[in-house]
Structures are given as C-alpha cells and as structure tokens.
Amino acid sequence: MKILLINPPRSPENKILEYAPADAKHFIHKKLIGPPLGLLTIAAAVKDFDVRVIDLKGEYDLHPEAPDLKDQVIASLEEFNPEIVGVTFIASEFYYGIDIFRTVKLFNSGILTVAGGLHVTICPGDFTDASVDVLCPGHSAGIFRELVIAREKGKPIETVPGIVLNTASGHLRTALPDQAWDAAGKNFIMPDRSHLKRWLQTYKVGKDPSPATYIFTSLGCPYECSFCSIWPQHDRKYYVRSVESVIDELKQLQEYETVRFADANTIVDVNFIHALFDRISEEGIKKKYIMDIRSDVAVRHPDLIEKLAGAGLKVVICGFESFREEELRQYNKNTSVSYIKESIDIFHRNGIMLRGNYIVPNGYDEDDFRALADYAGSNRVVYAGYTILTPMPGTVFYNEIKDQIIDRDLSKYNFFNSVLKTKLPLEKFYENIGKLWKIKLGEDII
Ligand code: B12
C-alpha cells in the first residue's frame, strides 16, 4: 500500500507586509519554518507500508520558482502512484489542501483522500468538497493506521472507527473508537523526521547555520484564551509526555542544534520542566532551545528561567497580547499587564532573546496605535510581533463575533489580515500595524 502525505504550501496572504513601510518589511516574518510534526507522526504510524512525505512549504522555500501546486502534485502522483493521499489542514491552508485533493481525484478518482489536522478537528463541517473521501479528526495516527489496514484488506472503510466519511448525502460518522488515543502518553509515536532530508536546509531560524526542529512535550493547553485554537482542538484537555520519552527524542536529534518546543506553553507543570532539564544536563544534551513561556509564569519562577537559560534556552516567545488590562480580560488571557515589564527584565537578565507578541484588535484608532507604540517602545524586546486579532473558526472569539465577519476567505486567517470591519480605513489600519514592527531592540529577525 503506497501512502503519500502532503504538507500544503503556506498561504501567501499578508496584508501587514504589503502595507508596511519599507524599513519595517525586513522585520515582518514572511514565513514560519518548521517540520510538519503531525504528518511525520502519521508517517511513523504506517512506517511498515510504503509511505512518502512531501513538505510543499519546504519545496517552495528551496525552489521558489518551482511549478505551481497542481503540476507539483501531478508530478509526485505520476512518480509514486499512491493509493492513499493524506493532507494536514490549518485554516489558512484549507484551499490549498482542497486543491491538492481535487488534483488527486482528477489524476485517479480511485485514490483515497484523507484529511487530518487541526482544521479537520475543529471545523469538520468545512470538508464537504467532493474531492474529500475521509476525515480523520483528532490525534488520529492510530485511526489512520486502521484505515490503511482496512483499505489493504479490501474491507469497507465504514468499519473503521473514529472517522467521518464525506458522502454525496452528507457526513457519515463511523463508530467511536474503543479506547481514547493518548497521543502524548502510552500511544505517543515518535515523528519520523527521516522524511525531511530534502528540505533540512530550509528549517533554519534567524542567522543560525544549522537546521532547527520542533518537539512537543505537551498537547493542548490549560488556559482558555478566546482567540486560540489549541484548547478547542484538544477539547480543553491537557496532556504531558513523560520526561524519558522527551529525552529519548532529544537524543535522536543529532542533526539539529536548535530545538523549538511546539507546546502552547512549555512551562505549565513546573516540576516536569525542572525534571526534564535535570535529565537534559545529566545526559549532557547540548542544544539551543526556543520555547513559548507566559510572562506571568516567568515572573513566578525566575529561578526556573535562570536554570533553563543555563541549559541552552536562547529564545522565548511570549504572548504579551495587550498593554491594557481590559483587553487581556476580553481575551480571557488570565494574566495582568503588570507582568510584562518584569518578565522582560527576567528574560533579558538571563541573556534570552525575547519575542513579545501583541495582538491588534480591529477597533484600534490612531490614539490606540499611539498608546500601543508608546508602551512597546518603552518595553522593547529583540523580536517584536504585532498581528491582527483574528476570529479563527472554531474558537470562542469566532462564536462571539461571527456576525461581524466581512471576509470569509480562509487563506486570510493567519493573523496577518483583517477579516473584520476596522475602525480606521483599512489601509491606514494596516499601515499603522506595519509601522509597529519597527519598535524593537536591534536588527535581529526571527
Ligand atoms: C509546529 C507548528 C507549525 C509549523 C509546522 C506546521 C506545518 N504543517 O508545516 C510551522 C512553523 C511551519 C507553522 C507555521 C504556521 N502556523 Co503553526 N503551529 C505549529 C504548532 C506550534 C504545533 C503544531 C504541532 O506540531 N502539534 C503537534 C502535532 C503532533 O499535532 P497536529 O499537528 O495537530 O497533528 C496531529 C493531528 O492533528 C492529526 N493530523 C495532523 N495532520 C494530519 C493529516 C492526516 C492525513 C491525518 C490522518 C491526521 C493528521 O494527527 C497528528 C498526530 O497526532 C501549533 C500550536 C500548537 N501548540 O499546537 C501552531 C498552529 C497550528 N499554527 C498556526 C498558524 C496560524 C500558523 C501560521 C499560519 C502562522 C503565521 N501567522 O504565519 C503558519 C503557517 C505557515 C506560514 N505562514 O509560514 C495556528 C493554527 C490556527 C488555525 N486555526 O488555523 C496554531 C494552532 C497556533 C495558534 N495558537 O494559533 N506552524
């Protein structure tokens, strides 16, 4: 059984970049780089079959002039001749994923097309295009494996628990799986990074010459920020891997000097992180680490930040979100503005390069922009990000505001485009955000 797994290209929609002044464009990240951990996990789950992964983000980074999506997909279909094609979905890459499936079906309607990933999990209703055969919501590595086995044995796919069939008469849910799948615990599957060799040189962070990889220590998030898709994806549940399983994975990452933790927040269970980093130093694992850490957590645990910095923590991404208590409350961020300044001191004191991210709501006028610029200007960080409050489908914020959405083009749902009516004329809104990106320390970009 030949299985082709495709990571779709990234959405090119980026109005902040388009409208930013020339001297700000340099700092606005045009792409995020990293391995598709989800697809690599799926690939590992069926490694005893003939499985291939294509990272089209990496492919277009390597060869920006590469043939368009349709031709790329046809070329791989002709070469590999798969019987199953799987694609991973987030909101902004939805149309690309569907285009891939349409191309697959035109090439050979007998190929089984399988959609998985975050957008499938929280918005299954979007997947009604006739090119989609099966939806695998959730952490579905085990389910996907059952599907492949059923297909190979010629058994009807309706017999596979935990999937959704996209039929002409609507979605058909199969039986519930016997047991819940514990993707961070007993059912953890090590992502198979061997599939990424071709694109390794594209997974680089900043000026670092060696490639970086992602690793997760947890899935889900115990916080419930209204704009975030992670906790709805995991149904409010939070799962942590065992220390030894993370150590085991880190030991296999010889090719990578930089490891970016892909957790929503890496420090949730303080004891876990202490134990993990004790074992990292016992094992003599030397890497540069990048993590997402909340400002309130840093302020409550400065000793832990110091320890992590000593063990290789180089970059921290911190969602400041807002300089106003009222906005933090609206976002259900469960923190206070007062932590921002103190956390910056703690990170800087420990030589950590900080990316502080602010969210800009559509209601901002010139005064609001000035106030944010003043605040960010007196609390500078090495990398600063200013993105747009976006109602990601499936989030609490989406449900609160869905009647006010004026642009439903999913390719714009990547935090760099406004899909709500803005108070300022749209161009002014984007120009103002673009200008903000200059407010940072130094010239580094990430
Ligand atoms: C790693 C990561 C990336 C990587 C890799 C993603 C990729 N596919 O290439 C990179 C760096 C490329 C990336 C980029 C972006 N990302 Co990102 N990313 C993440 C992150 C940190 C972790 C995801 C992860 O690896 N989870 C662990 C794996 C194991 O879980 P999983 O992916 O869900 O996969 C499991 C299941 O979903 C399922 N599954 C997944 N795919 C498939 C496919 C099939 C066929 C099957 C059967 C099953 C299946 O099985 C998997 C194994 O259990 C999340 C935040 C988070 N903490 O979750 C954001 C997140 C997914 N990213 C997000 C966004 C918005 C982006 C960007 C658009 C950001 C931007 N503004 O530029 C960009 C897109 C590209 C770009 N512009 O460059 C959002 C998505 C929101 C949404 N509703 O769409 C998230 C949730 C962050 C957030 N808080 O909002 N990202």
Can you give keywords for this protein?
single chain; 446 residues; alpha/beta; Rossmann fold; TIM Barrel; 2 domains; 7-stranded mixed beta sheet; 18 helices; 15 strands; globular; binds cobalamin
Indicate the topology.
Layout lengths: L1 E6 L7 H5 L2 H4 L11 H9 L4 E6 H7 L6 H12 L3 E5 L5 H14 L4 E5 L1 H5 L11 E3 L4 H13 L10 E4 L2 E4 L38 E4 L2 E3 L9 H4 L4 E3 L2 H9 L6 E4 L8 H13 L5 E5 L2 H6 L1 H9 L2 E9 L3 H6 L7 H12 L3 E8 L5 H13 L4 E6 L7 H6 L24 H11 L10
Parallel strand pairs: 1-2, 1-3, 3-4, 4-5, 8-11, 11-12, 12-13, 13-14, 14-15
Antiparallel strand pairs: 5-6, 6-7, 9-10
Helix pairs in contact: 3-8, 5-6, 10-11
Bound molecules: cobalamin (B12).
Low-pLDDT runs: none
User: Shape, please?
Assistant: globular
Radius of gyration: 22 Å
Kindly state the percentage of residues in helix.
Answer: 25-40%
Please give the order of strands in the largest beta sheet.
Answer: 2-1-3-4-5-6-7
Bound small-molecule species:
cobalamin
Give me the CATH architecture of the largest domain, please: Alpha-Beta Barrel
CATH class (first level) name of the largest domain = Alpha Beta
Average pLDDT for all residues: 96
**Proportion in β-strands:** 15-25%
Instruction: Tell me the CATH topology of the largest domain.
Output: TIM Barrel
Count of helix runs: 18
Tell me the total number of β-strands.
15
- Biggest beta sheet attributes: 7 strands, mixed
**Alpha-carbon distance between the termini?**
40 Å
- The total domain count is 2
The CATH homologous superfamily of the largest domain is named Aldolase class I
Summing up helix and strand content along with how strands pair, one would put the structural category as: alpha/beta
